[in-house]
Amino acid sequence: MKKFDLIVLGSGPGGQRAAIQAAKLGKQVGIVERREIVGGVTAHTGTIPSKTLRETVLHLSGINQRCFYGQGYRAKQDITIDDLLTRLQTTINQQIQIIQDQLTRNGVTTITGTASFIDEHTIQVVTADNNETRYQADYFVIATGTLPHRPDHIPFNNTTIIDSDGILGIDRIPRTMSIIGGGVIGVEYATIFSALDVKVTVIDGREKILDFIDDEIIDDFRHDIKERGVALRLGEEVIGVEETDDGQTIANLKSGKRVKGEVLMAAAGRVGATSELELHNVGIEPDDVGRLKVDDNYTTNVRNIYAVGDVIGFPALASTSAEQGRFAACHAFRNTSSESFKLFPFGIYAIPPISVVGKTEQELKADNTPYEMGTARLKETARGQIRGNAQGLLKLLFSLTDRKLLGVHIVGEGATELIHIGQAVIAHGGKLDYFVDAVFNYPTLAEAYKVAALDAWNRISL
After folding, report:
1. 383-388 long-range contacts, Cβ below 8 Å, gap at least 24?
2. DSSP letter at 281?
3. Residues 191 and 234 in one domain
4. What is the DSSP letter of 71?
5. Does residue 74 lie within any of the structural domains?
6. Which residues contact 269 (CB under 8 A, 6 or more apart)?
7. What is the pLDDT of residue 390?
8. Whole-number Å distance between alpha carbons of 28 and 15
9. pLDDT value for 67
10. 3-class SS at 95?
11. Are 260 and 178 in contact (CB under 8 A)?
12. pLDDT by residue (tens digit) across 18-65?
């Protein structure tokens, strides 16, 4: 029985970073992946595919150039599913190769198969052809990620009625599409397909999409996607889904409405991929959606077993998962590590994208924190006009007590890159004066920070 210092279960961002960090500390590390190829959900069906699809659609549809050339403009006429998948597969293959090279270069042993716990120091790995091997380790990191939630009342067929992973397997671009779920995944795919002139309807039981995002940002976002023909059916509950004789899908709503589409995608949340781990053998109990509870060091209730990434829930981002994995490996081997991160940006890769960091107006009001805000329209910057940014808003929140930057909220192309300027300033206690006095390259979208800061300065000076 081969013994390691650390065995990581799952090769997504959290698992990769945990394994490589432990290897760099001189430890013998194994990483178990149930797929034949490493990368986890992030590389195969999640972050990398969806973001690559977004970039491909932006390029082929020419949507950001339509303000110059008209609403009928496309960089390529008659876009097919093959056009989308060619670039997608190339990117996935390149990313997987990079991940495998990093693991190999750092001496991490890759083990293919499905893992389950025998006891707190032993796992069993079963391969696709049912070969069983046992491995031991001093420590384990569970980084198995999540799977799409499949409600019982939805008859998935993996062709016209699919989950969010199945979207990458459709054989054609539909003319109409229904999406159940107004969260991040549902909204991202809704806007990606609407850029291809697909008529998309988003159905959600809540009264607001992306309800954790600043209200003003969401108002701007909703206006933009509605102009592109995305229909929102909010406050509506899906009670059943059926397929018609001609291959159409129908979502039956509790209100009596019926939403028809060529393809229906359910993006109604995700569940922890823990059902095959036999966690009862070590005394770990997942919650009712398969997620694991951990402390501030990402330790489960079993002292030598850690859990990181989507399997532990919020914030469930590739970026935060990777940092959790690094931190867990450092903690396991008592290596100095920075304090667990508190300030991280959210990125929603819709069209247009949204990114936020720090406090929201809602939070500041709830805490009775005196603040002022400043805003800038991205389309009013010279760079925005050159790029064709028809929409876009950058919003800054400053403390009225000491003028420190408290929050940054952006919607518009470039948002997920721009956000890091605000993140750095908040992290270092930067103030309004920094933006007012700073000189930014011209023309850039980053100038919007200065415009928004001057707007806030004018309000404060009244």
Report:
1. 383/443, 383/444, 383/445, 383/447, 384/412, 384/445, 384/448, 386/443, 387/64, 387/413, 387/414, 387/445, 388/64, 388/65, 388/66, 388/67, 388/68
2. G
3. yes
4. T
5. yes
6. 149, 181, 183, 289
7. 74
8. 15
9. 78
10. helix
11. yes
12. 999 999 999 999 999 999 899 998 888 889 999 999 999 999 998 888
Domain stop point among 217, 240, 268 = 268
Answer with the one of 268, 287, 304 that is the final residue of a domain.
268
Total domains present in the chain: 3
7 to 3, 18, 306, 321: CA distances (angstroms): 9, 9, 10, 17
CA distances from 191 to 186, 222, 385, 394, 450 (A): 9, 11, 22, 20, 29
CA separation for the pair 238, 233 (Å, rounded) = 10
Q: Does a structural domain hold residue 13?
A: yes
Residues 363 and 437 placed together within one structural domain of the fold: yes
Q: What angle do CA 59, 61, 66 make, to 5 degrees?
A: 100
By DSSP bridging, strand 270-272 and strand 249-253 are unpaired
Which single residue is written with the structure tokens 């750092």? 106
Residue 431: pLDDT band (50, 70, 90) is very high
d(CA 273, CA 379): 43
Domain that holds residue 420: 352-461
- Confirm if 116 and 133 have CB atoms less than 8 A apart: no
Side by side, which strands form the sheet with 176-180? 161-163, 263-266, 176-180, 199-204, 231-234
pLDDT tens for each residue of 176-197: 999 999 999 999 999 999 999 9
Q: Does 431 map to a domain?
A: yes
Place of tokens 């990093």: 102
* CATH number of the domain to which 453 belongs: 3.30.390.30
Q: Is 296 exposed, middle or buried (0-12, 13-18, 19+ CB in 10 A)?
A: exposed
pTM: 0.93
Q: How far apart are alpha carbons 42 and 11 in whole angstroms?
A: 9
Q: Give the integer Cα–Cα distance in Å for 299 and 303.
A: 6
